[in-house]
Fold this protein.
Amino acid sequence: MKKQTRLMALVLVFLSLFSTRAQAYVRPNGFVGQSGRVRVEQIKKFQATNNLNVTGQLNAETQRLLYDPTIQPKDYISRPPSQGYWLAINKSRRTLTLYKGSQVHSRYAVALGKSSTPTPSTNLAVIQNKAINPAWGGMGGRPIGANDPRNPLGERWMGLRIPGRYGFGIHGTIKPYQIGQYASNGCIRMFNYDIEKRLFPLVPVGAPVWIGTQDQLKSWGLLQTHASPSQEKPPAKPQPKPIPVSLRVNGEKVATDVAPYIEEGRTLVPLRFLSESLGYQVVWHPESRTVDILHKEGDHLKGVLVFEIASSRVRQVDPEFYQTLRDEDLASQSYLDLIRDHALFYNLDTPAVIRSGRTMVPVRFVAEFFGCQVGWEAATKTVLIEKETPKPQETPSPQEPQETQPEESPVPKERPAPLEDETPQEEASKGPDLVLEEESPSENKL
């Protein structure tokens, strides 16, 4: 009997040691040893940081990640919208991730719109404006001023410009217990400390913002998941072999040192050769990795397009403002920040890339933007570009009286639609639901 008791004791000790050894690793967190509201908030932050669904509960998924050091959060990004800071809001997980190019900077738990007032999905949003201690317009009710403890916006506001929508933004909250829920009127709420001390100081106006479900983000080229030694990286999408093509401008073949090619259904051409064959000047800025196309008629600058390498964003800059820039401004690493408030934004299907030392861009966007006709000759795989020239005006014969016709305004050739609603500030500020701060935008969501 004594032997059995001793054996049982040894078994229990062994199991205890094994259990202690198995549980020796605990992933860094802020909730162990905490209780109540603090514990719940720290669990939410832990879940967001590790690409988990934000619930505030220590569920099986959270415990598995807590004790298993081999599982790591991993984000796969095929084409980031910017090499600078940008945001992705995962509506399935209720998280906001701050990226810099293809690298994760930080992740945060958020609250999103409830079913009756959902947060819109888009990959075309940008940060429109920022405000410290904003007032709330009241959404048709009584407005609440800044620094009022009842103000549902907290002390930071980052307004979103979403095509066709208005009033949405990222802000703090007076109801932190709702973080991780679908509880707002469509805005993205954050813990006050997270937006005040971490997000707000880093993210500039003009930063791209993606908002979507896990599946929507994946369709745009972003997968937020986990990786472990036993898991292989998701197989890369097979890239079709580029198809070489030729280029003719106004009937003349354009010789290029890097051949144009078709990739994923888009024809890319060397930007310098295309632009100069159309009579436009090309300027390369290595400091900001940008390329400017200048459309001039004599000494008059008529148009400016700015391409950012590895980005699908194109900026149409106000020519008058562009002419005020100094050489040191153009050569600055903050060049894109300088022109941000004086530009319209467009989106390319395929980002500008460097191939064999040449910047390659989608031919149709550039040609049609400057009023050219683009055609395709399938038999020879040739892109045909015709630059429209003004036709000489016919003078009516003096012997034949002409009927007087009402003068019609010329209809400008249609250009690609900008990503943003460029409503003038004086018109954009109209409406009953305003952020009551002199330099803040209209806002009617929470």
